[in-house]
TrEMBL record, chains A, B:
Taxonomic superkingdom: Bacteria
Subcellular location: Cytoplasm
InterPro entries hit by this protein: CueR, DNA-bd_dom_put_sf, MerR-type_HTH_dom, MerR_fam
Main subcellular localisation: cytoplasm
HTH merR-type domain segment(s): 1-68
Keyword tags: Activator, Copper, Cytoplasm, DNA-binding, Metal-binding, Transcription, Transcription regulation
Record's subunit section: Homodimer.
Presence of keyword ATP-binding: no
Name of the protein this chain belongs to: HTH-type transcriptional regulator CueR
Gene3D superfamilies: 1.10.1660.10
Length: 142, 142
DNA sequence: CTTGACCTTAACCTTACTGGAAGGTTTAGT
DNA sequence: ACTAAACCTTCCAGTAAGGTTAAGGTCAAG
């Protein structure tokens, strides 16, 4: 298999495959003309890279997963732990994105959204960020 | 205000402030010794940048928000639309991350997680990804 | 007079690629 | 045999949003 076929087979771009090779994540044989050649074991590795990337693993994490794939004395517990750790990371991200989303919705709710220039959103975002839910008010004895 | 104070006041790093200036997102006056000087209007812009970044706006989107902040004939509807568009983007991301998370949990469920090398996760990830729930079948009339 | 805390610019590192330049190879068609 | 399309090769540059380090100027205190 040449790189273009390998790309179509795995859903990666040829560019990405060369990039992964430059990082030592996969190897390729070479034909006499210099073209890269991929066998079924290489295609397996590329599939792992493609799919692991799609579910959120970084290339360094993929490097570890590929090493496990090629290690016949691996423990499946190590693979599982890596996956569950990634789930925990995604959960953190989800919490963060949800907070951002809710903040934006609260801001949008307080904005008229008309032809006028007064805008609660801009007022809020451009003022000092206390991070507080309540506003400080001046004392009577100032 | 010097850049360090401005940084502490807004929660940005001095480095980021210089970077934003290099992109033309904010301006600064200069003292005789070359130090940057920030007035309250500049601090407002920096606050907008800091907080807009935190809720997910890109620097290019921030550029637009700053231009609205400085445009007295703006329409608050434009600000609101930008915010709601960002909410929609975050919603897309949330869907995507949630799918990734669920895929990973399904994979983890099918893995023993023991000392042995057999691992449903690696098997799944390294095999061809149809990504399909249904398989394409050839037409009778070709 | 020196130390420490500031400030300045410039240049490189990061992640995970994508695009393009400049050129070699193969294949199909005429 | 010639040519054009469709492959392939390497290398260089750029993206977002800064962080890090280097090398040096400025300023206040002790």
């Amino acid at each position: 298999m040449k790189i273009g076929e390998a790309a179509r087979a795995t859903g990666l771009s040829a560019k990405s495959i060369r990039y992964y090779e430059s990082l030592g994540l996969v190897q390729s044989l070479r034909r006499d003309n210099g073209y890269r050649e991929y066998d079924s074991a290489a295609i397996q590795e590329l599939n792992l890279l493609a799919r692991a990337r799609r579910v959120g693993f970084s290339l360094e994490e993929c490097r570890y997963l590929v090493s496990l794939l090629n290690n016949q004395s691996r423990h499946s517990a190590d693979v599982k732990q890596q996956v569950l750790q990634k789930v925990a990371q995604l959960d953190e991200q989800l919490v963060h994105l949800t907070q951002m989303r809710n903040t934006l919705l609260e801001l949008a709710d307080r904005c008229q959204g008309d032809e006028g220039p007064e805008c609660a959103i801009l007022q809020d975002l451009s003022s000092a960020n206390t991070g507080m839910r309540f506003t400080l008010v001046e004392d009577e004895n100032g």
